Amino acid sequence: MAAITVTHRPQAIQSLIDGVERYNPGNINVLEEYLNAQCKNGEYDLMANLAVLKLYQFNPNLANTSVIINILAKALTAVPAPDFNLCLYLLSEQAVSICNSSFFFSFFLNK
After folding, report:
1. CB 55, CB 23: distance < 8 Å
2. How far apart are CA 60 and CA 5, in angstroms?
3. 44, 74 in Cβ contact below 8 A?
4. Residue 7 pLDDT more than 90?
5. Cα Rg of the chain, angstroms
6. Mean pLDDT computed over 27-52
7. What is the distance between the alpha carbons of residues 36 and 30, in angstroms, rounded to a whole number?
Protein backbone atom coordinates (compact mmCIF):
# COMPACT_ATOMS: atom_id res chain seq x y z
CA MET A 1 0.00 0.00 0.00
CA ALA A 2 1.48 3.33 -1.07
CA ALA A 3 1.87 6.17 1.38
CA ILE A 4 -0.28 9.24 0.97
CA THR A 5 1.66 11.98 -0.77
CA VAL A 6 1.59 15.30 1.05
CA THR A 7 -0.67 17.69 -0.81
CA HIS A 8 -0.18 20.57 1.62
CA ARG A 9 3.11 20.73 3.49
CA PRO A 10 3.50 23.04 6.48
CA GLN A 11 4.52 26.58 5.54
CA ALA A 12 7.70 26.35 7.65
CA ILE A 13 8.83 23.30 5.66
CA GLN A 14 7.81 24.89 2.36
CA SER A 15 9.92 27.97 3.05
CA LEU A 16 12.88 25.79 4.09
CA ILE A 17 12.91 23.72 0.93
CA ASP A 18 12.14 26.60 -1.46
CA GLY A 19 14.95 28.93 -0.48
CA VAL A 20 18.60 29.03 0.37
CA GLU A 21 17.77 27.85 3.91
CA ARG A 22 17.48 24.37 2.41
CA TYR A 23 21.28 24.20 2.66
CA ASN A 24 21.54 25.44 6.24
CA PRO A 25 22.67 22.53 8.45
CA GLY A 26 20.92 24.21 11.37
CA ASN A 27 17.61 23.15 9.82
CA ILE A 28 18.32 19.43 9.82
CA ASN A 29 16.42 18.85 13.06
CA VAL A 30 13.28 20.51 11.67
CA LEU A 31 13.41 18.36 8.53
CA GLU A 32 14.11 15.18 10.51
CA GLU A 33 11.13 15.91 12.77
CA TYR A 34 9.00 16.41 9.68
CA LEU A 35 10.13 13.00 8.43
CA ASN A 36 9.09 11.47 11.76
CA ALA A 37 5.66 13.09 11.33
CA GLN A 38 5.44 11.62 7.81
CA CYS A 39 6.19 8.16 9.17
CA LYS A 40 3.67 8.55 11.96
CA ASN A 41 0.89 9.92 9.72
CA GLY A 42 1.48 7.70 6.68
CA GLU A 43 2.34 10.67 4.49
CA TYR A 44 5.19 11.12 2.03
CA ASP A 45 6.98 14.32 0.96
CA LEU A 46 9.70 13.60 -1.57
CA MET A 47 11.00 17.16 -1.82
CA ALA A 48 11.46 17.53 1.93
CA ASN A 49 13.14 14.12 2.15
CA LEU A 50 15.50 14.97 -0.70
CA ALA A 51 16.40 18.17 1.17
CA VAL A 52 17.43 16.04 4.17
CA LEU A 53 19.62 13.84 1.99
CA LYS A 54 21.16 16.89 0.29
CA LEU A 55 22.05 18.29 3.72
CA TYR A 56 23.66 14.97 4.60
CA GLN A 57 25.57 15.08 1.32
CA PHE A 58 27.06 18.47 2.20
CA ASN A 59 27.45 17.64 5.90
CA PRO A 60 28.28 13.93 6.20
CA ASN A 61 29.00 14.30 9.91
CA LEU A 62 25.27 14.99 10.44
CA ALA A 63 24.08 11.86 8.61
CA ASN A 64 21.73 9.70 10.65
CA THR A 65 21.42 6.11 9.44
CA SER A 66 17.92 5.58 10.80
CA VAL A 67 16.70 8.75 9.06
CA ILE A 68 18.26 7.61 5.78
CA ILE A 69 16.58 4.22 6.09
CA ASN A 70 13.21 5.85 6.81
CA ILE A 71 13.59 8.07 3.75
CA LEU A 72 14.46 5.08 1.57
CA ALA A 73 11.51 3.11 2.94
CA LYS A 74 9.19 6.03 2.18
CA ALA A 75 10.64 6.29 -1.34
CA LEU A 76 9.90 2.60 -1.92
CA THR A 77 6.22 3.30 -1.31
CA ALA A 78 6.22 5.50 -4.42
CA VAL A 79 7.18 2.68 -6.81
CA PRO A 80 7.05 2.77 -9.85
CA ALA A 81 8.09 6.42 -9.53
CA PRO A 82 11.90 6.91 -9.56
CA ASP A 83 11.95 8.33 -6.01
CA PHE A 84 14.06 5.51 -4.56
CA ASN A 85 16.76 6.02 -7.19
CA LEU A 86 16.70 9.79 -6.68
CA CYS A 87 17.36 9.22 -2.99
CA LEU A 88 20.13 6.71 -3.63
CA TYR A 89 21.95 9.14 -5.92
CA LEU A 90 22.23 11.65 -3.08
CA LEU A 91 23.86 9.17 -0.72
CA SER A 92 27.61 8.92 -0.33
CA GLU A 93 29.31 5.60 -0.82
CA GLN A 94 29.93 5.48 2.92
CA ALA A 95 26.24 6.06 3.70
CA VAL A 96 25.21 3.32 1.28
CA SER A 97 27.66 0.88 2.84
CA ILE A 98 26.40 1.68 6.35
CA CYS A 99 22.78 1.29 5.26
CA ASN A 100 23.66 -1.83 3.32
CA SER A 101 24.71 -3.49 6.54
CA SER A 102 21.24 -3.03 7.97
CA PHE A 103 18.72 -5.81 7.52
CA PHE A 104 16.16 -3.55 5.86
CA PHE A 105 18.38 -2.26 3.08
CA SER A 106 20.09 -5.54 2.29
CA PHE A 107 16.72 -7.34 2.24
CA PHE A 108 15.36 -5.09 -0.52
CA LEU A 109 18.59 -4.98 -2.53
CA ASN A 110 18.90 -8.76 -2.53
CA LYS A 111 15.32 -9.42 -3.68
Report:
1. yes
2. 28
3. yes
4. no
5. 13
6. 96
7. 10
Contacts made by residues 29-36, CB under 8 angstroms, sequence distance 24+ = 31/55, 32/64, 32/67, 34/9, 34/10, 35/67, 35/70, 35/71, 35/74, 36/70
13, 30 Cβ separation under 8 angstroms: yes
Other CB atoms within a 10 A radius of the CB of residue 61 amount to 6
- Are 76 and 84 spatial neighbours (Cβ–Cβ below 8 Å)? yes
- Tell me if 69 sits within 8 A of 104, measured CB to CB: yes
- Report the pLDDT value the prediction gives residue 95, as an integer from 0 to 100: 75
Provide, rounded to the nearest whole percent, the portion of the chain with pLDDT above 70: 80
CB atoms closer than 10 angstroms to residue 44:
21
